[in-house]
Design brief:
Elements (H helix, E strand, L loop, with lengths): L3 E4 L3 H8 L10 E4 L4 E6 L6 E5 L17 E3 L10 H6 L1 E6 L1 E7 L5 E6 L7 E11 L5 E11 L10 E3 L1 E2 L4 H5 L15 H5 L3 E3 L19 E3 L15
Parallel strand pairs: 4-10, 5-10
Antiparallel strand pairs: 1-2, 1-7, 3-4, 3-6, 6-9, 7-8, 8-13, 9-10, 9-12, 10-11, 13-14
The protein binds four DNA strands through strand 5 and strand 7.
Length: about 240
DNA sequence: CCAGACGTTGTT
DNA sequence: GTCTGG
DNA sequence: CCAGACGTTGTT
DNA sequence: GTCTGG
């Protein structure tokens, strides 16, 4: 799944992937957490937008459920009332250049692992966004990131992973007039399926208070396929 | 008809 | 808002 | 996602 | 254990 990610790429590198936009002034982020502002591209807008991560549907009474709506399962997103309409109205790309997944170790600790595309080039998570009016009438825009079952190369680490839209399908994902076949993989970044480079980065990232380049400093570099299983006691063989 | 839910992940 | 359960 | 809190009453 | 905050 996806519960933390990074966006520290330069504007120039965002241009290279998403096309030229007027990127807002922004802080480099190494530990973006749910409920925080994230940078997205909407299909109907020529400007990137900041929205809160954690979907608040337009009909919600309050924002209390938002922290549990940071992800939407791609397998069911077309059926769920909270997401279904957004799939045909409000798709977006959530801009990132890496993400963290936690692997449960035998001693019960959770070790963060950092995943990127080769070269650390930026990418867009498949996202949905919505608009909510708070009791005073203020508009709050929020978003969620789609997830999918982890492909085999990732399975030993985690059973879910975020959906990264293939660069060639950015236009299609953002254009809600075009149908997306959720059962097809032709719009998904192929390395999601075949393997991303990743690294051990240490436990500092676990605390959201830490948000600096040390969070993703590589301790041990890994290649896809080098996934180490950590069976729990009693589950050896 | 009205009332109440509407979501994901992980773990067992 | 829209669907489900009673 | 992980980390950290998790409660009431009355009195100042 | 479960909820909230970031």
């Amino acid at each position: 799944m996806c519960g933390r990610f990074t966006l520290a790429a330069a504007d120039h590198d965002l241009d290279g992937v998403f096309g030229h936009y007027s990127w807002p002034e922004r802080r480099l982020r190494y530990n973006i957490a749910p409920t925080q502002q994230v940078l997205i591209l909407k299909g109907n807008s020529s400007e990137p937008a900041w929205v809160r991560w954690g979907l608040v549907p337009r009909w919600a009474r309050d924002t209390s459920g938002a922290a549990r709506m940071i992800n939407a399962r791609s397998e069911t997103v077309l059926e769920k009332p909270a997401f279904r309409d957004l799939m045909s109205r409000s798709r977006c790309l959530v801009i990132a250049d890496g993400f963290y997944e936690w692997q449960l170790l035998p001693d019960g600790k959770k070790e963060p692992l950092y995943f990127q595309l080769p070269g650390g080039v930026p990418f867009g998570f498949a996202g949905l966004w919505d608009t909510w009016h708070d009791p005073t009438g203020q508009i709050v825009e929020t978003c969620t990131i789609l997830t999918r079952a982890a492909p085999p190369w990732l399975g030993a680490i985690h059973n879910r992973c975020p959906v990264i839209v293939d660069r060639s399908a950015h236009k299609r994902w953002l254009d809600t007039a075009q149908k997306i076949d959720m059962a097809s993989a032709d719009w998904i970044e192929p390395l999601t399926e075949f393997g991303l480079p990743y690294a051990r980065v240490g436990f500092r990232v676990n605390s959201v208070a830490n948000d600096d380049s040390a969070c993703r400093e590589v301790h041990t570099k890994k290649e896809p396929g080098m996934v180490e299983n950590h069976p729990r006691q009693g589950e050896l063989f």
